[in-house]
Specification:
Elements: E1 4-5, H1 13-22, E2 27-28, H2 29-39, E3 44-45, H3 48-61, E4 64-70, E5 76-82, H4 84-108
Parallel strand pairs: 1-3
Antiparallel strand pairs: 2-5, 4-5
Helix pairs in contact: 1-4
């Protein structure tokens, strides 16, 4: 199976994936992209041109907060953390995604 980038995801899915990744704890943007790539067995390759606008959108919605800190290699990095509103949004988006995936599955398996 080929690789996919964020532009090929269903609309809104990138936000869901970022929120879910941040549910495990704070991360900087590069770490989020690497985690998504790793967990998806290299199927999802989220580039900066998709990731950072999505993170900005999540910040503006109040679903994540950000603070500057030092990365593992002592470089300045912006760390993102899920807010309590973001946790509620994650729950709502997971439920919506499950409904959508279930509907698609039914169509794919119809006789």
């Amino acid at each position: 199976m080929g690789r996919s980038d964020a532009s090929e995801l269903l609309p809104g899915t990138l936000d869901l994936l970022i929120l879910r990744t941040l549910a495990a704890g704070q991360m900087h943007g590069y770490g989020i992209a690497q985690r998504l790539r790793q967990v998806s067995d290299d199927v999802l390759q989220v580039g900066e041109s998709s990731l950072y606008p999505a993170l900005q959108r999540l910040l503006l919605n109040g679903w994540v907060k950000a603070a500057w800190g030092a990365s593992e290699n002592n470089r300045r990095a912006r760390y993102y953390t899920l807010t309590s509103t973001g946790r509620k949004q994650l729950s709502a988006e997971r439920a919506q995604f499950a409904r959508m995936a279930g509907a698609i599955e039914k169509i794919l398996n119809m006789a």
